[in-house]
Amino acid sequence: MMRRLLLLSVLLMCGAVYAFAGPEEFTFLAWNNGNWQNGYPYEIQETDNPAGSVIAAMCDDYIHGGSPGDMWFANITNLGTENISLTRFNNVGGVNSLYPLMLYDESGWLLLQTLVEPTSQWLTLNYAVWNIFDPSAPCDNTCQAWIMAAQNEAKMGFPGVDFNRVYIVTPVNQHDPDPNTVQEFLYIGEDPSGSGGQSTVPEPGTLLLMGTGLLAAVGRKFWH
């Protein structure tokens, strides 16, 4: 009995370790209509999956660059986890501040508006996201109006917003000051109901909790 329990423990630990996937390599495919100033959507793709779907991404990083053909390794963060430790702007206002998460939530909300707003608004939405993280980025009156809308949503707690659909692609050297390195991106993935985009995967912490819970249940069975 104990041997089986030990084997189960090892398998669960291996599963939890496997869930902490390492960085993925991405390839920058194209700007929107050949010009970065056109904003969302930029086109990126996982390098080892050239037959996979092209990701329509929104740049949230006005300072850094990147050009079609660039390849880089990045960490992927699901905004719904509220764990932004691997993101580029996680230290705005201090590493222990809630302010960076609020900025990412506002940007995620703006990105999600592309699902309901006409394409004529997408450029302005992208400039609003750029301005959220870099107030020196250009932002006209319409852009400012979108920022105010996002701030109002934040005050209400973003009712009905599923941030599990928002993913952040951050270069592994997340705080690299070199403006010529690749920027950070946001993209919309699939919600659990399967309405479109990319499927979600259980978070490592969730898998670990599931594993330890199952192990405890098995232990009670054998020891009581």
What does the secondary structure layout of this molecule look like, with pairings?
Layout: H1 2-19, E1 24-30, E2 42-46, E3 55-59, E4 71-78, H2 99-112, H3 122-133, H4 141-155, E5 166-171, E6 185-188, H5 204-223
Antiparallel strand pairs: 1-2, 1-4, 2-3, 3-6, 4-5, 5-6
In short:
The chain has 224 residues and is an alpha+beta fold. The chain is 35% helix and 16% strand. It has a six-stranded antiparallel barrel.
Description:
It is a single chain. The protein contains 5 helices and 6 strands, in the order αββββαααββα. By secondary structure, the chain is of the alpha+beta class. A hairpin with an 8-residue loop joins strand 2 and strand 3. The chain starts with a helix and ends with a helix.
Number of domain units: 1
Strand order of the largest sheet: 1-2-3-6-5-4
Shape: globular
Give the assembly state of these chains. Answer: single chain
Rg, please? 20 Å
Tally of helical segments:
5
User: What is the makeup of the main sheet?
Assistant: 6 strands, antiparallel, barrel
Structural class: alpha+beta
Strand content: 15-25%
- Helix share, percent: 25-40%
How many angstroms separate the termini? 12 Å
Order of helices and strands: HEEEEHHHEEH
Low-confidence stretches: 5-20, 192-224
Number of strands: 6
Give the tags.
35% helix, 16% strand, 224 residues, 5 helices, six-stranded antiparallel β-barrel, disordered C terminus, alpha+beta, 6 strands
